[in-house]
Amino acid sequence: MFAADDDSAIASSLHRQATVLKDAGDWDGAIEILRSAKPHMERSGVSYPPDTWDRLPRYLQRVGRYAEAMAEFDYLLSDLPRRANHSFCDDDNVSFGEPKQKLIAEFIAVHRQNIWRRRRLVQMREIERLRRLAKAQAKGTGAYKRKKS
Question: Which candidate among 7, 21, 41, 81 keeps its CA 20 to 30 Å from the CA of 34?
Fold first, then answer.
């Protein structure tokens, strides 16, 4: 039990560090910290909310690493059954059998919907970012302005 408690404390500390780095503008540092927090979150006894799990893909999108963000969302979707079972495995207030399975199914449905909603938001932001880049290129201004020879 102590290992799970240690993992929970480590994950919490790493998330705080990631926030500090993000606030300081060090997005890459924050991303690396969040990557290192993920295994601790998986091993801990805490049932983390979707906002905690999807910080990493949101940060990745923020710095233009869209493909990595989508891969993280795919991971979150594929990992839902494990997280659902983990959330209810030690709960003495949840009986085994059909009621527990119903709770797990509801957990998965709600969290899947949250992940898809966040994923869609990231996709919309990426589309808008690409539109702005295309517009800047068409005008010959912005970060992608070609140098005159």
Answer: 81
